[in-house]
Design goal:
The chain has about 150 residues and is mainly beta. It has one domain: Calycin beta-barrel core domain (Lipocalin, Beta Barrel). Helices cover about 5% and strands about 70% of the residues. The chain contains one helix and ten strands. The chain has a ten-stranded antiparallel β-sheet. It is globular. It starts with a strand and ends with a strand.
Length: about 150
């Protein structure tokens, strides 16, 4: 993997598991963000740094991903601040600080699936999302990190 990478983050949100099984891709709200980033491998962990621009926020948000085995951590710093930990088979909680207020969120991670090749890392995370102790949705995120030279 090269230092310069392209980071693609795609997310799906399902309010009802029956709906998610019956719905086609066109009917689901899929969000995708693609950003240039930097990749490092240190102490048996993958690190990816990138900045993203979010709607309704003027300055970019700095992101750091740490991936080790079946645990995926995401730190966001800037107008939005959060440290989210997705650990397969575990429920984790954190405070999500936004310009619009703070939210206590929980991620009940069912699966963290990682596929690695020489120039690409694919991560698929399936989890239940709660906000302020209320179930919000079943979600999935797919992150793909590709060497920029590969395009």
């Amino acid at each position: 993997m090269t230092k310069e990478v392209l980071v693609s983050v795609r997310g799906l949100q399902f309010v009802d598991s029956e709906v998610s099984q019956a719905a086609s891709d066109e009917e689901l709200d899929q969000i995708e963000t693609i950003c240039p980033g930097e990749y490092y491998y240190r102490n048996n962990a993958h690190y990816i740094l990138y900045e993203e621009n979010m709607e309704e926020v003027d300055e970019p948000v700095s992101n750091m991903i740490k991936l080790r085995d079946k645990e995926f951590c995401l730190w966001k710093k800037g107008p939005v601040n959060v440290q989210m930990v997705f650990s397969e088979g575990k429920k984790t909680m954190t405070d999500y600080f936004t310009p619009f207020g703070n939210i206590l969120i929980a991620m009940d991670t069912r699966e963290v699936c990682v596929t690695e090749s020489e120039d690409c890392i694919k991560i698929h995370i399936s989890y239940g999302l709660e906000a302020n102790y209320q179930f919000i949705a079943d979600c999935s995120i797919t992150i793909e990190i590709k060497s920029l030279a590969q395009k």
